[in-house]
Amino acid sequence: MPSRDPAEPTRPAPPFDDELIGLDPDDPEAQAFAAHLDRMRQDRPTFTVEGYLDGVSDFADSANRARGGRRLLAIVLVGLILLVAGFLITDALGFVIATWL
């Protein structure tokens, strides 16, 4: 029986105890689905630097899990973002140098 002492932290129930009843905990597909449910339940701050970095981390993790066309699309998307960021940085530096010289 779990302790009701407020000084002891309570641990959440494993996903196979409450939501995935009847599924085999050793099945790789069931484990992947349980991991998916855990990712969906994560409550993170969204309007902070940590929230933005967690979003980037989630994108990187999902891009690493992707295969085929989705992985290629993620690589192209990251390449385009880096290309636009490089263009904006060189444009800003060109403006600063042209203004002060």
From TrEMBL:
Keywords: Membrane, Transmembrane, Transmembrane helix. Residues 1-22 are annotated as: Disordered. It comes from the Bacteria. The chain crosses the membrane at residues 72-98. This is DUF3040 family protein. It comes from Pseudonocardia eucalypti. The lineage of its organism: Bacteria, Bacillati, Actinomycetota, Actinomycetes, Pseudonocardiales.
